[in-house]
Amino acid sequence: MEPGLLKSADWPLLIDLYFFLGGLAGGAFLVATVGNWLDAERYRDVVRVGYYIALLAIIPAPILLIADLGLPARFLNMLMVSKPAVTIGEGALTVGPFHLKPWSPMNAGAWALLAFSVAAFLAALDVFLVDRGGRSMAALRRWVGVVGSALGLFIAGYPGVLLGATARPLFISAHWVGALFLAVGASTGAAAITFVLSLLSGWGAGVRDAIVRLMRLTTFALVVEVVALLLFIISVASAGSVGVSQALSQLLSGPYSLLFWIGAVVVGLVAPLALQLGGVIRNAGPAMSALAAGLVLIGGFVVKYVIIAAGQAV
Question: How far apart (Å, rounded) are the C-alpha atoms in residues 152 and 146?
């Protein structure tokens, strides 16, 4: 059995929300950046909504994390901590009286969260200034988008790495959970933009084209999510340990199975894929697009929630 943390993590609902919102923010930011690089004018609504969603979704993330930690100072300690002795902090980068541990999932995640929040703010600020009649800082937005997208991908996937570093039986062999969380971030980010555009925008040809393309992207991310979920289950099941088998049964046939199969699989994967692949969304109005996007958002949260909850049950 691979070694994990000496003390198993115990994450409440606040951390589930933090993981979900962080992944959604990263996915929405990436989609907006791709639209901005491809054709900023054609995908103007996608860019605007995507950057706004990324900022609004990431704002609660540090608040939720601090609320779980209990004291704001503990979040600062995740960034860097004082080094009372020279021998403390082996393998860390020393900055004056502090040391940073970029190879630590917690330390790297805290810095990525901080840097991504800055990128999301700058991108949303530029969009806001343009909406108010100002001029866009086009070069700044493009390169902030590149940096922020890389950070957003990290934020979406790193919780899976963090889970794999714990001593919980379900996560010790869960080598694909990072890829699964990354796919969930991409699908929920694109779905969130689709949902807002479907509710707030006029159903013109430009918006219809953007929504159809967004749902195609969402579909691709959902297919990747299905593959990653299957590989996650197979890798855990092949571990052969009694404890691991018991942990997996919590998810597939135990107390969390109904929520997993109905909420994560049927609602979050099967239903939106059927609507998209069956051509329903391409020939429907904004209500159907909003419904499909809402199902993806619900399923994205549920799949993260049940995996974390089932992993903590054993």
Answer: 10
Q: At 130, give phi and psi (nearest 5°).
A: -65, -40
**Residue at 49: amino acid letter:** V
Our measurement of the distance from residue 177's CA atom to the centroid of its chain's CA atoms, rounded to an integer in Å, reads: 12
Residue 85 belongs to a domain: yes
Report yes or no on 161 lying in a domain: yes
Tally of structural domains, the chain:
1
Question: Sign (positive/negative) of CA torsion 36, 57, 144, 177?
Answer: negative
Q: Residues 136, 161: contact at Cβ < 8 Å?
A: no
Residue closest to 276 by CA, chosen among 191, 219, 228, 225 = 219
Nearest-angstrom CA–CA distance, 276 and 280: 6
Any domain includes 6? no
Torsion of CA 218, 258, 261, 1, to 10 degrees: 100
pTM: predicted TM-score of the whole model, two decimal places: 0.85
Give the CATH number for residue 28. 1.20.1630.10
Question: What digits encode the pLDDT tens for the residues 113-148?
Answer: 888 999 999 999 999 998 887 777 778 888 999 999
With b for 16 or more beta-carbon neighbours within 10 A and e for fewer, the 140-163 pattern comes to ebeebbeebbbbbbbbbbbbbebb
